[in-house]
Here is the input.
Amino acid sequence: MKTIRGVYEISVPLIGNMANAVVNFSTHDVSLVAIVSSVIRGGKPVTGFGFNSIGRFAQPGILRRRMIPRILAASPEALLAEDGMFDPVAISAVAMRDEKPGGHGDRAGALGALELAVWDLNAKIADVPAWSWIASVTSAEVNESECNSPEVPTYAAGGYYYEDDSLGRLQQELQRYQALGFDAFKIKIGGADLKADMQRIDAAIDVAGSGIRVAVDANGRFEVDTALAYLEAMSDRQLRWYEEPCDPLDFDLLQQLSSVTNIPLATGENLFSAQDTRNLLRYGGLQPGRDVFQMDAGLSYGLTEYLKILELLKTAGFSRSQCFPHGGHLINLHIAAGLGLGGCEAYPGVFNPFGGFSPACAYSDGKVKPSEAPGFGLEEKPELQPWLEKLREMI
Ligand SMILES: [Mg+2]
Here is the structure.
């Protein structure tokens, strides 16, 4: 019988000296989790790695004081599925024992890191890439299409504010992404006034070739009047989408925008549960065939919860092609590939060591293909290797 020999966490600083309209990332860190199994390959235990995406903080306290001890105290059989593999649903339930419902805050990211390490571990035991493992084990329950292509449409997220020569540097940044093979982009808005932001949008469209290749992200900054003023100013630019115009939990304001917008709306990266999604669908006024969902498994209790989110979207008439998880990194690349989502974002060269993909991934025509490495392929990302090594030293 397979067993879990140990679970370890380290908090890894995010290298991000940039800011959006709301947040400076220079103090952010991320929990990197290792689950060590009893399965031995090449003389070493097969080990699954996961992390809680980007944009929140590491959760050593919740992981080390609550969740990891619960898993290590559980009986080994309670953590296995019927097929003998580690069961992410059962492991999540054990990790969440004695936690009350609601309050989906940092706890959702802590479990996200842990639960995703289970998926990495299972894929490595099966000796297949994580996208392939995810596609095979979820097909019976949730796959609505045969869309399991490992090629994922992606776009380069960036477009930050620069102090000097802001427009020129913005254009240079997007040109760098173009040279890497990206043909669609997302830029920040809301960190300057409307007039300056419209100049930024037009500068980005100049590089991209059309508005449909440029999305804008306000990071939840606007009140109703500003959100509507931006909508009106942008309405003839045919933009790809207008992301988080207002507070992520102000569903009434979102509904107001939704009723008048001619630009697709995007939201969800700051919703951390299926219940939050249910409320968004009830009250946010989002439309099938138009709007975009960006919930991120690493921030939302992991893939087990994300599959519940996809079920809710399906029941409400939305397609997986409307899902573009937040957090451009290898884990979400594999999730998007395995579940046939619309795509995922990418942070080329930003938010290291987690942001961006690995040199082993192939970029072309705006698409990224995961490598054939077992699991999420985190070991192939040079910036992550020293941190994975540090975790291994703890084992
Ligand atoms: Mg965003």
Q: What stands out?
A: The chain has twelve helices and twelve strands. Residues 140-147 have pLDDT under 50 and may be disordered. The chain has two domains: 4-127+385-394, 138-380.
